[in-house]
Amino acid sequence: MTDESEKDTMEVKRLRFDKNMDSNRKLLYKIVQLVCVFVLGIILFNIFQLVEIIQGTGRVINYTGIIRGGTQQLVKLETNGIPRDDLIVYLDGILEGLQIGRGQYNLDKLDDIPYQEKLAGLNAYWNDLQTEIMSYRGDPGNREKLIQMSETYFEMANDVVGTAEFYQEQKTKILTTLEQIMVILLGVLIIISLQQAITEIHLTRKNKELAAAAYFDKSTGLPGRLSCEERIWTPLDLKEGPYCMVMFDLNNLKWVNDSYGHSEGDRLIKAFADILYRLTNDHVFVGRYGGDEFIMIVKRYSQKKIEQLLQEIQLQTTQYNEKSEKLKIHYAVGYDYNGNSLQQMLEKADEKMYVNKKEIKDRQNVNSQIMI
Predict the structure, then answer these.
(1) Per-residue pLDDT for 226 more than 90?
(2) Pair 200, 234 in one domain
(3) What percent of the chain has pLDDT over 70?
(4) Which of 113, 177, 199, 255 is most enclosed, with most CB atoms within 10 A?
């Protein structure tokens, strides 16, 4: 294999490595995206619950405030000789709803121990206050005590409101934190989406470069080994026949590489590739099959026209050699015509090419002995 061929192979390997890296990066992005989406789902679920809790706590605070003000109003009316049993029933209903949850006022039962403890104390004192109200109705002499108890109840209700507000504040802080985390995760998803798009572009470019490197020989510009294999293993279209498979092999290339360097060997390969390329058309395919091997697949040519094509190649090679002062192109050739498959024709053309190579070598040996 020449230096150029080695460079092409290394280029393909590099492109494949880069492609694998991009594929791994793409997989990692997908995993991170799935994790982010999963975490976002959990956060959104908790946010919805927190919003509902905060809204429910707001209703609790409002109705606790109603109890606070309603009790003050109730005592004021009672001390002015205006009994309000309906207001007592109303306040009873609110307190019951706050303790057990829902009820006729659709109130939430806050899941907070300090609040529940203070609410229980408020309810117990409410019962004492009602007893005192009933006692006042029978004996207005305890007016000061009733007013004092209402003031105490107001302070207790105020404390319950403050506890509920603190609970709401804590939930709001958690909600704010979750919203911040959600914003961060959304930012991560946006960044990953952009990176994924960039990786997708790189991957597409690498695929194109890899396809170009794999299917085309960079040093000669001819279709490479994969392109040749693809043609060879494609079933014959009998309507396009007859077919001919031609195999070329440059002679003494190893000697040229060893004696003059791989750059000179590559120059000969490129020169011969140019000769073959100039003869390509819709019916003639030429590709570099290996380091110094080329194939030509011809269709719709008669055998006589095939011979003329080979003569043209020999003529152009001779013209090149006459102009070249240093190194000459020498090659062996073999072909098989109108076979059953390109694979079989390739094997036969390869065998004939090696026979031709041996004949050339034998002639060279005979000429060398005559000169001696």
Answers:
(1) no
(2) no
(3) 91
(4) 199
* 218 inside domain: no
On whether both 332 and 294 belong to a single domain, the answer is yes
- Does residue 6 have a pLDDT over 70? no
**Phi then psi for 49, rounded to 5 degrees?**
-65, -45
pLDDT tens-place string over residues 326-350: 889 999 999 999 988 999 999 999 9
pTM check: above 0.85: no
Other residues' Cβ atoms within 10 Å of the Cβ of residue 257 = 20
Q: Which two tokens stand for residue 185?
A: 């995760």
The answer to which of 79-93, 183-197, 266-280, 297-311 has the lowest mean pLDDT is 183-197
Residues 6+ apart with CB under 8 A from 235: 341
Return the DSSP state at 235: P
Look up tokens 């001696």; give the residue: 372
Give me the mean pLDDT over the 24-35 stretch: 83
Beta pairing partners, 150: none
Element (H, E) at 103: none
Among 204, 236, 270, the domain boundary falls at 204
Residue 145 lies in a domain: yes
Q: Supply the pLDDT for residue 213.
A: 64
Whether 223 and 295 have beta carbons less than 8 Å apart is answered as no
What is the residue range of 255's domain? 225-371
In the sheet that holds 331-337, the strands lie side by side as 284-288, 293-299, 243-250, 331-337
- CATH of residue 358's domain is 3.30.70.270
d(CA 107, CA 101): 5
Strand pairing partners for 331? Answer: 250
Q: Say yes or no: 269 and 149 in one domain.
A: no
pLDDT tens digits, 47-77: 999 999 999 999 999 999 999 999 999 999 9
> At 202, which helix (H) or strand (E)?
helix 143-215
Place of tokens 């590559």: 266
